[in-house]
Amino acid sequence: MLFFIVFAYQAQAEEEGWTIDEFSDFVVTAKHGEVIHGDKLRFFIKKNDCSRMGILFSFSTSIENQNINKLQDARIPIEINGRKIDGAAEVILVQPLFRSMNLVMMQAPGLKHIGSMISSMMAWYDSENYFGIELVSGPNFNPDDYFDILRNNWKLEGLPQKIAEAQSICRGPDDIKNT
Length: 179
Hints:
The chain is an alpha+beta fold and 179 residues long. 20% of the residues lie in helices and 36% in strands. Strands 1, 2, 3, 4, 5, 8, 9 and 10 form an 8-stranded antiparallel beta sheet that branches. The protein has a 4-stranded antiparallel beta sheet with strand order 7-6-11-12. Strand 2 and strand 3 (40-46) form a beta hairpin. Mean pLDDT is 88; it is low at 1-15.
């Protein structure tokens, strides 16, 4: 349910392309993609654990595949900045958009400590000047069967500040701490 809400709502004004939205159990920081604007990169923090976060991302597709709903709960192999990610991404939502469009939202494996995740991501971004996710082939999965665009990139300028802001919302006004 949270993931549908995250997709459906665009509540706050964008600043440098970032949004921060607060939901009952989560704080979500999001950014539009550079290849497909509607495909977002989202960082979520559960309010009961403000020290860890997870990554959600979406890929829209106009390929008409009657089996696209079978991707629900599947694990899809991905690469981030050309590096294969262990554990693959889990499809958490397959949502029809228009007559021949679908949105597929995925979660990268696991919740990670915010400080180490942001540090690693920004090191990749600073050295390679991009942050990109690509859907790749794996056992019993060919992304070309489902997706017309297999890669998206996001600009991460301002990410550490936005995550710190999201973390302060998570903790509440009485308990703001730096990570």
